[in-house]
Write a structure and sequence with these properties.
This protein is mostly beta strands. Helix content is 7%, strand content 36%. The chain has helices at 255-264, 288-297, and strands at residues 2-8, 21-22, 26-28, 36-41, 49-55, 67-70, 73-76, 87-96, 101-111, 116-121, 133-138, 142-144, 149-153, 162-173, 176-184, 198-204, 209-211, 230-232, 241-242.
Length: 304
């Protein structure tokens, strides 16, 4: 049992307080542990009586361990996630100084915020030799305003960074919007929009993505507040990079990659063994030009 003591108005000695109530029974998902959910009150007909509020076991107490009581405040011990659990059940006991007590099960409801579920680089496989798109799946159906999506190449590896020219299309799959971002311009190496080597970052402006039919905005940084930006590629483990010849996505053209290239060398489109991701310019033939591009990257790690 966990609880706190606070004073509550009273009128008559010896009477038990009324059942505890919670001032706010809703909390946004993604709120951090330590967030106050609401105030607990239990009117006592006795005057100026001290009450102890406790989380106690019993019917409706399944989620007591996810909360604590500080003063008269119910406080989160965890970061709530609507997709994992949309409601919590707690049981609270109010006890006055005369040891009169009453217990009440309470429900705390988690508010569902708009989030990005997943971002997928390229064709969804490990290879980073040919990156022509980035797919972003939201957890609901959304409208995306112009200027909401920005892709930049990071400085480094002897290459200048900068903003990538992009376009995007959307489709609804299983009641979720999937945005497919494609590339063009100076940060691409061919007519098909294949990104040049480098690490990249996507930023989605949380104030420019809206849930359809509702005024709610994207909680991109998952802090429990609407309108926060989402970033993908800000850490190396996101693996949002392009590296010609890297077929296993480890950031380096190693011996295994080179072996696969030699097997594809000389093959043309439509021929068994041709690998489009090893055709640097997409001309339909893996040739000496491609070999030279592979050779200068061999065993050179792309730095984040």
């Amino acid at each position: 049992e966990v609880g706190s003591t606070f004073a509550s108005p009273k009128r008559l000695a010896g009477s038990a307080p009324e059942a505890p109530a919670l001032s706010s029974a809703n909390v946004n998902e993604n709120r951090s542990a330590g967030t106050q959910v609401g105030s607990l009150t239990a009117i006592d007909v006795d005057q100026v009586d001290a009450q102890v509020m406790q989380l106690v076991s019993g019917a409706g107490s399944a989620d007591n361990g996810l909360f604590r009581i500080s003063g008269n405040q119910l406080v989160l011990n965890v970061k709530p996630d609507y997709e994992l659990k949309s409601q919590y059940q707690i049981r609270v006991r109010a006890t006055d100084s005369g040891r009169n007590s009453v217990e009440q099960p309470l429900i705390v409801t988690v508010n569902d915020l708009l989030e990005v579920e997943q971002s997928v680089t390229g064709d969804g496989t490990a290879q980073r030799s040919m990156v022509q798109q980035l797919s972003v799946r939201f957890d609901n159906i959304v409208n995306i305003d112009p200027g909401a999506l920005t892709v930049t190449r990071r400085d480094g590896n002897g290459m200048a960074g900068g903003v990538v020219t992009t376009a995007f299309t959307t489709q609804v799959v299983n009641s979720r919007t999937v945005a497919t971002i494609t590339f063009s311009g100076a940060m691409t190496r061919d007519a098909f929009g294949t990104l040049v080597d480098g690490y990249y970052t996507l930023v989605i402006d949380g104030s420019k993505v809206h849930r359809v039919g509702l005024a709610s905005l994207l909680d991109g940084n998952r802090d429990g507040d609407e309108g926060g930006d989402y970033a993908f590629g800000s850490v190396a483990t996101d693996k949002f990079f392009a590296r010609f010849g890297d077929l296993d996505g480890d950031g380096i053209v190693g011996s295994n990659d080179y072996s696969q290239f030699t097997q594809a060398y000389g093959k043309s489109a439509g021929q068994a063994g041709y690998r489009r991701e090893l055709d640097y310019k997409g001309v339909g033939l893996i040739r000496v030009f491609d070999f030279n591009e592979i050779r200068r990257r061999l065993n050179v790690l792309l730095q984040f």
